[in-house]
Amino acid sequence: MDLSEAEGGLTTSTRDPQDLARRLEGWLTDVLPAGSRPAVFDVTSPVSNGMSSETLLFTLRTHQHEREQITACVARIEPEMDKVPVFPRYDLGQQFEVLRLVADHTTAPVPPTMWFEDDPDVLGAAFMVMGRVNGAVPPDILPYTFGDCWVTEGSDEDRAKMELSVVDALAAIHTVQPDRHDLSFLEPAPVTGPITGGTALQRHLDWWDQYRSWATASQASPLLDACFDWLRSTCPDNTKAALSWGDSRIGNMLFEDFEVSAVLDWEMAGVAPPEVDLGWLTYMHRFFQDLAEDMGMVGLPTMLTTTAVIDRYRALTGYQPDDLRWYQAYAAMRHGIIMRRVTERAVRFGQAVRPDDPDDMILHRATLRAMLDGSYWERLP
């Protein structure tokens, strides 16, 4: 989940990229065949490093039969758990397995998986290495809905092409289903107690409710409490289950010529109805669109609308999604927990001051209140 830019930038690690590079090079000497002579260079740790795991970009030089090979790589490292991590646990091994599953069984483009290492002695935490994929990301700073970026500089036809490609990728991911693939490794792990629920959606909701309790343990959030009371009392009776990307927003995709070249960031993957990803996709665009409109900008109001996304998804899959309103509220309310936790991290790193009202730590608290009273939906196109 990479929303640090929307919050003005966060320090996500105290690790030294150059020290990580030296350790990585030593590890690769043991992992690769004898005579590979690995060299790690051009190491950078992006400012937009994400909130859930640490990213290290590097170039790897190796030799095979005395022929030099250059590979652009990305390492994802589990976060330092004493630095107010966004989530209660991380499982990069699970993410690595999901990436391989998607690559092997779908047409959704994902980065090539190279290595996973669970020994924390190598880099201080478990990590995985992937091949780097070319492409541009819709910016979060300033949000792509603010203009002056490649998304807004494209034509209406370009953005329509982009939208179709995004929904195509989601539909491909959702072809991975429990009746055809073993997804038991994605069952949600307990946070504060056993996960309950008779459907994938109910278990998904229960995990997020437990996460809410964990994230607000130091100081309760009346707003988030009310949100999850509402979600539980209105949860749809949806028995559909498929692989859920989880963080299905365009800011977690790479694009070339307005088509998806890679789907990134799988730390929120799970099993859920397709509507959970569709709701997150459309809500997260609205989140950035709302920011633009609040600043008096036009933004991109006709992009990734609920109607267009549902119509495209139905045409591709033959599946008629439920009305997305509950799932969009579910997305916004889960996003509220994450924003609360992000602010806790900002306080931890001296980049914010803890407010008197804990709900002031939720950037889009007005949206959540409007969703609870029903007035939010009146402003949507």
CATH first level of the largest domain: Alpha Beta
Number of helices: 11
Mean pLDDT across all residues, rounded?
92
Question: Could you give me the name of the CATH homologous superfamily of the largest domain?
Answer: Aminoglycoside phosphotransferase (APH), C-terminal lobe
- Main sheet? 5 strands, antiparallel
Question: How would you describe the overall organization of this protein?
Answer:
By secondary structure, the protein is of the alpha+beta class. The protein folds into 2 domains: 4-131, 2-Layer Sandwich (Phosphorylase Kinase, domain 1); 144-379, Aminoglycoside 3'-phosphotransferase, Chain: A, domain 2, CATH 3.90.1200. It is built from 11 helices and 9 strands. The chain has helices at 17-31, 92-105, 120-123, 150-153, 156-173, 200-215, 222-234, 274-294, 306-317, 325-348, 365-373; strands at 39-44, 54-64, 67-77, 113-117, 127-131, 242-244, 253-256, 259-263, 270-272. The strands form 3 sheets. A 5-stranded antiparallel beta sheet has the order 1-2-3-5-4, with helices on both faces. The two termini are 27 Å apart.
Structural topology:
Elements (H helix, E strand, L loop, with lengths): L16 H15 L7 E6 L9 E11 L2 E11 L14 H14 L7 E5 L2 H4 L3 E5 L18 H4 L2 H18 L26 H16 L6 H13 L7 E3 L8 E4 L2 E5 L6 E3 L1 H21 L11 H12 L7 H24 L16 H9 L8
Antiparallel strand pairs: 1-2, 2-3, 3-5, 4-5, 6-9, 7-8
Helix pairs in contact: 5-9, 6-10, 7-10, 7-11, 8-10, 10-11
